[in-house]
Every structure is written in C-alpha cells, then in structure tokens.
Amino acid sequence: MTPAKIPAEAERRAEKLRREIEHHNHRYYVLDDPEITDAQYDRLLRELTGLEAKYPDLITPDSPTQRVGAEPLDRFGTYRHAVQMLSLQNAADRTEMAEWYERIHPDGGDQDRPTLWCEPKVDGTAVEAVYEKGRLVAGSTRGDGWTGEDITVNLKTIRGLPLTLRPAGRGVEIPDLLEVRGEVYMNKKDFQELNRAAAETEAKIFANPRNAAAGSLRQLDPSVTASRPLRVLFHGLGRAEGMRFERHSESMRSLEKLGLMTALRWANLCEGLEEVITYYDRTMQERDAYPFEIDGVVVKVDDLERQKALGERSRSPRWAIAWKFPPREAETTLVDISVHVGRTGALTPVAILEPVEIAGVRVSNATLHNPVLIRERDIRIGDRVLITRAGDVIPAVVGPVPAGRTGKERRFRMPDRCPACGTPVELPEGEVIPRCPNIACPEQVKGRILHFARRGAMDIDHLGDKLVDQLVDRGLVSDPSDLYRLSARRDELIALDRMAAKSADNLIEAIERSKRTTLARLLYGLGIRHVGEATAAALAGRFDGLEALGEATEEELLQVPDVGPAMAKSIRAFFAAEENRRVIRDLLAAGIDAVPPARKRGQGGPFEGMVMVFTGELDSMSRPEAKELAESKGARVANSVTKVTSHVVAGAAAGSKLAKARSLGVTIWDEPTFLEKAGVSPS
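Above: the chain's sequence. Below: its structure in token form.
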C-alpha cells in the first residue's frame, strides 16, 4: 500500500513542534526556567504525536516522541570508550587540598599561579554521551574507565538531553564528533516525590538520589527509565573533533551554547588556594539550596596545555581533585521502632535512635518508610545502623551493619491494631502500608489539622504540634473548619497550657488572615490523598472552584497534568464522602475566599512583563507569599537568574543568584522596594 502523501503544511508544523518542544525541554531541564505550563507542553507533545500517528513518515530519530521507542532489553551490551573515563582523586580536608595544590604549583607564590575552575560535585552516576554531526548516537556508563555498559536507549529518554545539538550563539558550530562526560542525577524534590509515590505501593524505596538515578538508568525496560525524573549535567570532554579550546572554562561555555547543561552557573574561576577555600566554604554552606545533591567541589586546572603537562595517573588526572564535604552519614544504635499514625491513617514505622550528630544536626529519630523495607533490608531492633541525612529530607535508615550484631537483636512486627485508637488496621489491596480506617482517630485528626495549617497550605502561624495536641485532646477542634470557630472560644484557648491572652489573640488573628487564600492552597490543605502542592496547583488551574472540582468525573480529572488513575480515583472518593463535603461547606461558610488562579493573576499590573527571581530570606513574608504577590501584579516568577530575568528581589543572606544578577546587570530590589512597587505597605 502506498503511504499517504504528507501535506507540506503538516511537514512544516511537525518540524516547528519538534523545535518548540526541544526548546521547552531545554528551558525546563537545563535552564530551570520554564516559559510555559505543563499543560501547554503536553498539548504540544500530543499534537506532534497525533501528526506522526497520521503520517508515520514524519517521524525522525530525533523527534521528542521517540525518546521511548525501544523494546525492553535482555541485557546491556558493552561500550568501549575511545578516551579513558578517569575517576578523581579525593581530598578530605584542607591539609590534603593544600598538598594537591603544592603538587600542581610547587614554586608557590603568585608567579605563574594556575587559574582553577571550581564547580559543585554532583552526587550522581557517571555517563558519556557521544554525538556525531550533532546527533546523539551513543551513551554509556563509565564502567572500569575503558569499557562501560551501552545505555544509549535509556540515556535518550532523559528530556533535558538534546537528541540533536543546536548551537545558540556566535562562534560555536556543531562538531563532527563530540564525546561529553557528566553525571545523571535527580533533583531533590523529584526524588522525594518518587519515594513518596513508591511508599504507597510495592515499588522500591531508594536510599538517596544517587542510588535512584543509577537504578533508573540501568533499567532493561526503557519505558521505566523514561518514567523517572532523570537529569544530566556535563563536566568534561573525551574527544571534540572540530572544536578547539585553550581553557576548560571555554569548553563548558561552548557546551552550554550547544544546548548541554553544565555547572557553568554555579562555577567560579579561582586564583590561588585561598580563593578555592572560600569557594568550598561558601558552597558547603549553601549546599541545601542546590536543587540536586552535591557532596563536595571539583577543582580543575583551567589551562588545557597545563593539564597535559601535569598528566595523569593510571585512573585519575593530576590536574583535578574532588574536595569532599564532611559525610552526612553516621552509624548508631537502633534502640526501638515506634509506629506513627499519619493524617491519612497510614501506619509508618519510625526508628528511635541513640542520638548521633550528622553534619551538625543531632538526630534521634529516622524514617523506616514501611514494613516491607524493614523486612527486605533485615533491620532489627538493637542493630547498629547507618543513618543518612540529605538537605531538608527527614533522616532515614539506610540499613543495618551486620558485623555489629551480638545476637540480642530482635525482629520488628507491625501492630494489628492502631496504636492511637485501638481500631483493627487494614492493608488495602496492592499496598504495603497498613492503615487505620477510623477517620475520628485522634492522631489522624491532629495530622489533618497540622497539614491544613502548614506553610504551603493555609499558612496559619502559631499552630504547632503541642497546641494542636491540646486543641484535639480537649475537644476544641475535630476538623479544620473548627479552627474558624475558635474566636468564639477565646477563654478556653487562654486556659490551655502555655497560652495567654496575647498568644490566643495572635492565633485567632492568624486563622482570620488565612481566609484570604488561593484555591491551590486550600486544595492542598484539605489533605486529599496523593495530591501534593504541584497537583493542587494544576487542579486549581483547570477547575473554577471547589464545586466544579467536586463534580468532575474521573475522565475529566485524567485530563489534568500529573493526575493518573489512582489519583483521580482518590479525588473522586474524597469529594464523594459526606463528611468531607460537610467540612468544605463549613470552611466556605466561615468566609474562606479561595480564588482560582485565573482571577488571582494580575492583568496589566505594575509588574506586567517582568520576570522576577527571589533570593535570600524576606522579613515580611514567606517566599511562596512573595511569589503570589508578584504574580498577582502581573510578573512571571522564575527559579534561576538568566539573561531574560528583569528583576531580582534580594533578602538577607542572598547568595549566588544575587552575584549572577550583578554580573548580568539585572535590576536588583531589596524587600522594601519590592513592596513599595507592588503597592503594599510593609508590616
């Protein structure tokens, strides 16, 4: 059968869609500065998919639709690196760093002092990507340095990795051959969401983002890899035919112009050891602000001729070193395992530890995720265990140290009754977390109140754990709507432990202030199972109020980005429950004004056309509140400073974003100026 002739208009439209989609992939995954919403991106991808389905001859190897186009593998093949992929020598402290510096600059002093490229060390898994004539043709792991695994089909699923290089800027042309080395990783936020979703099912719980990235990259089924939120950052070259550089920093700028993500935005060129030490100290101090895990800084001689002169050892270069941060893992004793009852009734095991300090924080509790993980890792009460803490993530038990066992350790058994209310627990089909079915369980009630009041939801100040315990235990509050009746029970509030008239008034004022909110915040605060902040925002953008959302069918919900069958079913079940509908009626009757985004966003406001970035700590409001204010006045708020950023609002302890804004000549406002321009009086 003769293939249908492709109309010229369809051909032009497909090519335009491919360019647009890859452009937005670059904005989102490489620059961390998206220009369109997830829903708009999905519409572009669906349109291209439809065109290619209608006219199969339109499909090209580098089409965004082909990122998952391979059958599952039986095993990975091998890949021979043309140039050895080296590992880095490590420095554990300043003494070892000074010894390395002395080896590369034995004369000391300022004469002929090497310029050093310093960048954060991404805690990921090493890969190589090979481009021929600008087209991605191969991908591999490092392996033993000479031979790695061929992971081409999996590497192609990473959206931030261009399938075809497209130069952006003068002086850069597509090379005949380009071998780039880097790290595949997961952003911390994506990793937490992956584990949260996995905790609800039989899926594997990952110990840290590095393990998650490595495990995802080595899936034999490319569709599984594609479902994981992987990213890639490049930090070096193998071969680059048709490109000539004198300095490493030049090569990194060229890779960025070709559409490849590097550490350029976080890197510094340092003159001398003292500047390297300053960079190291600042990076370690700011490590939690990075979107991905870093475990040190990498220092390289910038001059490529000098690199050649210094040479290499058998497995590592003499011209580079990794200066590692102090470890964020520690060993201690698992004293006991308690069971926490969450707001959804989930029973979660929590490790009670012999207190131990990790990266300056004293840790006495850690998550164990679920009973399946405890069983799989054979974690026993009394074990010596390894604890990890990364950024703001709750400390977690990595696993036992079997060599430390004495024979007195005992296995853990989940209770068959809720430890808070005594109700027999249930294990829903297909899940691994037991649940208490009693919605009146006091621990569930407390969890729902705390969640409702948290910063990302209704943001009610002065409502902490101990106060919520008293409010629930004394019968003052049994659901979130009861909070808005507390003003009539002021005397009972004052009578609570560690409360007084002033504290009671502050709480009542904070509750009253929370009535002016957004639909997304209210949705998130309601605590619908599976619905996080991002999904709440997506739902709020699709439905004009709670009533419309409550009447939506599962089919309509599935049209919202990030909403899958389980989540759609959960949302429908929530709004179908009479008790939940009653709470919503009471909340709205109390005067909560949950404005949908379409009515909240300012049109023609004082910030119309501005692209803003916030950095540092603000005095008068939280960062999410500042973002909402800016958007309500017409601005678009981005996460990172780029050439399109028009204004940076800098609070206390502003870091690298402020420095980059200055280097790009971006307008910088302090908090009072921002508030004045927004027409808001400082509180």
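Confidence is low (pLDDT under 50) at residues 598-602.
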